[in-house]
């Protein structure tokens, strides 16, 4: 029997425990059972309740924070940020899960959204937004100095730019896509071979243009930054 008959078989995607946990918490928020300001149980409680390791709970909470669905408040724990936003992100999640996008498709969408976001941030960013970007850059610099990839710190910089646009739709589109890219970045080790050091330098350039209010240079520097990632087209297995 010719092997070509099996060319159209699709990869079986096994959902990770952290994704299942995030989906369940998101459903409680979207349905209104958890409301804005409600505090989530401790990692220990959730891990015991769901019969999973605490690392999976921690990863799920981190994903929800990326989406802006929950936020961690010092001395208070993790609280619900808002159910309308989570419902919107939930629709995005379902849509992207259905079409199972590949790396290059996601990068094409990121190019469209993030280049415009950089220009918009240059026009609208407030001092507190610049401070948040600087903190993200500093955190990435620390990770790079320690010899770590700094993937989450890298992606958080992009989220901070999206927040600076003051456009909620753009913010949540980019936040979700950025978090979705995290899985590809880990799977294909995109931050290898000093890529994180190059990204750090590019982040600083982008931030300076945004800080100076230079709309066109902000767009151009973001375009340059994303181009090297766009050219990275790992062979999907």
From TrEMBL:
Family matches, as InterPro entries: GntR_C, TF_FadR/GntR_C, Tscrpt_reg_HTH_GntR, WH-like_DNA-bd_sf, WH_DNA-bd_sf
GO terms, molecular function: DNA binding; DNA-binding transcription factor activity
Record key words, sorted: DNA-binding, Transcription, Transcription regulation
PROSITE patterns: HTH_GNTR
A Pfam family that the UniProt record links to this protein: FCD
Gene3D superfamilies with a match to the protein in the record: GntR ligand-binding domain-like, Winged helix-like DNA-binding domain superfamily/Winged helix DNA-binding domain
Coiled coil regions in record: none
Cross-referenced CDD domains: WHTH_GntR
Annotated HTH gntR-type domain residues: 15-83
PANTHER family: TRANSCRIPTIONAL REGULATOR, GNTR FAMILY, UXU OPERON TRANSCRIPTIONAL REGULATOR
UniProt name for this protein: Transcriptional regulator, GntR family
């Amino acid at each position: 029997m010719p092997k070509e008959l099996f060319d159209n078989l699709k990869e079986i995607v096994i959902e990770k425990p952290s994704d299942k946990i995030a989906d369940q918490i998101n459903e409680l928020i979207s349905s209104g059972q958890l409301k804005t300001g409600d505090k989530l149980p401790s990692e220990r409680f959730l891990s015991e309740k769901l019969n999973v390791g605490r690392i999976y709970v921690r990863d799920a909470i981190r994903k929800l924070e990326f989406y802006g669905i929950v936020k961690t408040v010092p001395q208070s724990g993790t609280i619900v940020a808002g159910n309308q936003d989570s419902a919107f992100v939930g629709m995005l999640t379902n849509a992207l899960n259905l079409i199972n996008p590949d790396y290059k498709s996601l990068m094409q969408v990121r190019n469209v959204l993030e280049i415009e976001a950089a220009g918009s941030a240059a026009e609208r960013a407030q001092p507190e937004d610049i401070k948040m970007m600087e903190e993200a850059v500093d955190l990435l610099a620390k990770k790079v100095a320690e010899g770590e990839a700094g993937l989450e710190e890298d992606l958080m910089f992009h989220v901070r730019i999206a927040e600076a646009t003051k456009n909620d739709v753009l913010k949540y589109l980019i936040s979700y896509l950025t978090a979705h890219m995290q899985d590809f970045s880990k799977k294909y080790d995109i931050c290898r071979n000093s890529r994180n050091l190059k990204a750090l330098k590019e982040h600083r350039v982008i931030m300076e243009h945004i800080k100076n209010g230079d709309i066109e240079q902000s767009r151009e520097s973001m375009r340059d930054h994303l181009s090297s990632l766009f050219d990275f087209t790992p062979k999907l297995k």
